[in-house]
Amino acid sequence: MMTSAWMLVIAVLVDSANGARSQGDIQPCARIHTSSSVVPLGSPVTATCVIREDCPLVIGQAVHIEWRLGSELILNSFAANESNRVSRIVVPSFNRTEALLVCCIQNCSQVVTGVQIRAGYPPEEPQNLTCETKFSSPSSLNCEWEPGQRDTHLPTKYSLHTEIRDINENYTYKLPPDVHHYSIPRNEFVLFNDIKIYVKAENDLGVATSAPLVFDPVQAAKFDQPSIETVGVEPKRLGCLKLKWRMSQQQSWLSHNQLSLEVRLRTADSDQMSDPPILVSQVRPTKAVTECCRLLHGTRYLAQIRVRYYMQGPWSEWSSSKSGVTLETAPTGRLDSWMKVSRNHTSKNLDIQLFWKPSKQFRANGQSLTYVVLKPNPRGKRERMCSTNEKWCAFQVSGRVRKVYLSAVNSVGESPLTKIRIYQPKAHTAIMDVTAFPHNDRSFLVQWTAEVTLGLTDYVVEWKPLLNLDLSHIRFETVNKNQSSLIINGSFEPYKPYGISVYPRFKDGMGPPQTVNAYLRQKAPSVVPKIQIKKTWCSDIEVSWDEIPLQQRNGFIKSYQVFYWEENGSVQVERADAEDRRVILKNLNTASTYEAFMMVSTFGGSLNGSTIYVKMNSFDALTVVITVTAIGVGLAFLIISTIWTCFSKHKKLNGYMWPVVPDPANSSIKKWSSESTQFTHPSWDNEEPNPICLSHLSFLDLPTTLSKEEDDIWLNSSEDTSDLGESICGSPFIPTYSGRNSESVPYATVLLSSCNDPVPDEPHVYLRSESTQPLLETEEYFTPKCYQNVANDRMSKEQCFFGPCDDDIPEGEEGPAIVWDDFPFLRALAMNESEND
Amino acid sequence: MASAARSAPLPESGSALVEDPRFQEILQRSRSLTQKILDSIADTHSSCVHTETLKLDSSDIGRFSTMAANIGIPSAPVLSAVSENFTLETGLRVMHDGLQLHQGLLSSIAPRLAEKDKVVALMSDVRDLKIQIVKMQKMNQSHIAAPPTLGSVELRLPGEFEVQVAAHLTLVQLQAFSWDVARCLRSLDHSAGDDDNQS
Fold it and tell me: Could you tell me if residue A557 is inside a domain?
């Protein structure tokens, strides 16, 4: 703030001093004389301030002249007052690029005069002057350069100077500040005539001139890219291609001049150009035919050319590619091979998969190559096993065959035979701990540990994409036995799995491989498996999921994580390893709905699946306990009360429970209507037998078709009713039976077996005859085939305990018919009676 | 004509000069420049002559001879193949004079043209060729060429039509003269062989 105010004062005073001078009648009070107003930075500056005697500010008083440089007061030690009107100052080192030097009086409250001093450096020599001729309309010679590295802090002017020899014409082009290029018009330079060009840089402290360029403007032209017209061959010129080319249409006038040409070639199946390009130093576009030799035979090449003026000037851009094929010869060199042998257990032959690749010395020397695998036969000839364009072949040979031969064939001939020994598969292992890691974006580093080296000859490293099992994708490399690592290169793709195997080969055979899978790069899987609820119990849920398909994994699965939470609850996580595709979500609140999703992680990223909702079944342990307890108590009470009733009211119960069977001796069967039975046993006909509770008349054997369980139940229950069963049994199936007359002969019993169902509403009843007549044992003439069980619509055949069910029972008989069915003997008697009638 | 020019015998002194590699180098440069002039005349004509009846491919020199005289366009000197009767020295001089004439004509017409970039470029090519011819003359040492000048030819161009006719006739005449120059130079080029027939 202070500084700027001070500068403002100085400016006004200096300006007023100048104004006074210009008016003529008013003389400035003082003058400053300096050695130079522009000085090299850091150099000393000398200045003298002279105050006029008649200056009103100093008339009649002694003054002390002081100096200020900018806003700083200069110490007296640097000033020398020669009188009270003259002062001389020496600034030993002027370190500012620009400053105002003023002299003042009265403690510098009055500035009497000042001078602006600038400091900097002389210009440096302009660097890197280059010129390029442009032939396109309008033609020009474009030059550019770089100023010196050092900032001069002073305005520096640049000018471009040309001198055209032979015609003695010189041109000077003055350029605006900070412009470091210029285009010389066509009429101010001469083609095929040397021109000298240089740049001058000039400021107040000096002049610097660049190194001059002397050149023919045609040499400085970057020609348009030429074009190749044809790439051909000449007869008997093996390994040679002949290129016919031309300059661009606009530069065809250069056809009489000598140019330099470069040719670069690459084989059509390679992505790299031959290195270095073939230089043809002297060509004429009029003879625009160039021959390139020492090329591979029978190989398609892509050629590009570029031109420049003879041995000088910038190269043009490369032309577009044109292809040509050299003359073919027979293949040369050998093939590297890799044979996988396995025993065929059905035919005792050996199954062989043979893979091969060209060795470094191999030359196909032709466009179309066929590979032939030959096997020696006992007659001394060779038998063709395969002929293929692929680089693999699978075939079978006898176990006695020790070697096969491989050869490459093209249209001209065939390569020397490569002998391939058949390694028998052996059990002994030689390697362990095979690992494979990405080495860079295109290769893997495979490492292994040798366990056995005795008899080891070498290793074979084999790799293949796991997503494409075609044998043509298998690649291999043979490795010296002393090596334990290999960098494998190939067209590996990221996020795709590769299987890498290392096979040890011994003198007497080949050992089993060690195999690892590897990814060049990994990322998150493409999909997340769907969570499936596998089991639910108490407050836990077991969820599982399917494996992610290999093509969608994108890396090694590191983990599965299931995140789940109830509403407003915290998130819980269960984690499973790659091999374990299930987790248990524990301690869930059965009253809540849970949200859950899965995150699958590879070593390259993770992916979240969609959220699912999980709800537990709405029962809890307390409810289960209460329900079970209530049922148990109820059953116990029922059993107790039934037993008590049986013992306390036996007779009454008998009368109630067992139906009153009419006395056949004192009654007419015709009058024994079903109603009476209904009366004595009112609830029976409406009662369907429980399909699970087993009932039977105990005096009969069980049908053999009963299940074991039913059988057991039956046996267990039979104890309770054995007396009843025995008492009534007149079954023709028990010939030893001897009836026993008693007051009350049980006719039949229906037994309630053990039951898992709820206690029935009404107690099971015994169907019983109260008749004292030996009812059945005297009816010898009546021997029914079987007892008909109490049947109803819902009863299955398996429930026919008394024999085969009669399927002939007409349907639709209801009411009384059913009651009759309840008493099969009686029904039989009734029917017999009616028949007799 | 080309084959006749090639087969014409050269005087012994001229023959020795022509065989000089440096002379041959200048000769080839001159051939390139001559070709450049020939290649650019068509473009230049279409850029500055807009009168439809004035076509470059028509032989208008005879039809416009009166106008040419009125405007003040001199005829180009006659250039023949170098022979015993038409020496190298004469040929170089005629080439020089013809080129100087056309350079002057173009420089007189150019200021009157709305689109002059291509005319200026052509004029520069003519100048450059003339410089190469001078170099060959210097090597011949039989004739020291006068310093190159850019003196314009005084033309009477009262109206736009005269300007168009003058530009047209100058270009037509320059084209014909350049063909003669090209033939003459080819007859001197020792490297010219079968390749010339290809081009």
Answer: yes
ipTM for the complex?
Answer: 0.88
- Report the number of distinct structural domains present in chain A: 6
Q: Residue A173: which domain range?
A: 127-215
Q: Do A166 and B134 touch (CB under 8 A)?
A: yes
The total number of residues written for chain A in this structure: 837
Nearest-by-Cβ selection for B29 from A139, A167, A257: A257
Least confident of A119-128, B135-144, B159-168: B135-144
> What number of helices (H) and strands (E) belong to chain B?
8, 0
Is A155 among the domain residues? yes
Q: Which residues of B159-194 are buried (b: 16+ CB within 10 A; e: fewer)?
A: eeebbbbbbbbbbbbbbebbebbbbbbbbbbebbee
In this structure, is the dihedral angle defined by the CA atoms of residues A279, A284, A288 and A293, taken in order, positive or negative? Answer: negative
The verdict on A55 and A100 lying in the same domain is: yes
Averaged pLDDT, A703-713:
40
Q: Residue range A692-699: average pLDDT?
A: 40
First vs last C-alpha separation in chain A: 148
**How many CB pairs below 8 A link A and B?**
77
Contact A452, A430 (CB under 8 A): yes
CA angle A372, A374, A379 (to 5 degrees): 150
* Euclidean distance between CA atoms A197 and A218, whole angstroms: 15
Contact B35 A252 (CB under 8 A): yes
* Chain B closest-CA separation from residue A175 CA (Å): 23
pTM: 0.59
User: What is d(CA A66, CA A325) in angstroms, rounded to the nearest whole number?
Assistant: 92
Q: A284, B191: Cβ pair inside 8 Å?
A: yes
Residues A232, A264, single domain; the answer is yes
For residue A301, the distance in angstroms to the closest alpha carbon of chain B comes to 26
Residues A188 and A211 in one domain: yes
Amino acid at site A749: T
In chain A, the residue whose alpha carbon lies closest to the alpha carbon of B117 is A138
Pair A110, A59 in one domain = yes
Interval B20-55: pLDDT, tens = 889 999 999 999 999 999 999 999 999 999 888 888
Find the mean pLDDT for residues A196-214. Answer: 94
Chain A from 273 to 292: CB within 8 A of any B CB: 284-287
Same domain for A392 and A343? yes
Name chain B contacts of A254, Cβ cutoff 8 Å: 32
Nearest chain B residue to A192 by CA: give it.
B29
Q: In A63-123, where does DSSP find H-type helix?
A: none
Q: What is the CATH number of the domain that holds A572?
A: 2.60.40.10
Do A114 and A133 fall into the same domain?
Answer: no
Domain-located, residue A20: no
Rounded to a whole number of angstroms, the distance from the CA of A217 to the nearest CA of chain B is: 12
pLDDT value of position A563: 93
Interface contact B123-A252, CB threshold 8 A:
no
Q: For residue B134, which residues of chain A lie inside 8 Å, CB to CB? A: 166
Q: Do A253 and B195 touch (CB under 8 A)?
A: no
Distance from CA of A9 to the nearest CA of B (A): 58
Domain boundary among A576, A597, A615: A615
Q: Could you please report the per-residue DSSP string of A133-180?
A: EE-SSSPEEEEEEE--SS--SS--EEEEEEEETTTTEEEEEEE-TT--
Is A8 among the domain residues?
A: no
- A106 and A52 share one domain: yes
Q: Which range, of A97-101, A283-287, A344-348, A811-815, averages the lowest pLDDT?
A: A811-815
CATH tag for B19-188 (out of 1.10.10.10, 1.20.1250.10, 1.10.340.30, 3.40.30.10): 1.20.1250.10
Residue A258 with chain B: CB contacts under 8 Å: 28
- Domain C-terminal end among A194, A215, A236: A215
Asked if A219 is an interface residue toward chain B (Cβ–Cβ < 8 A), one would say: no
Q: Is A255 on the interface with B (CB under 8 A)?
A: yes
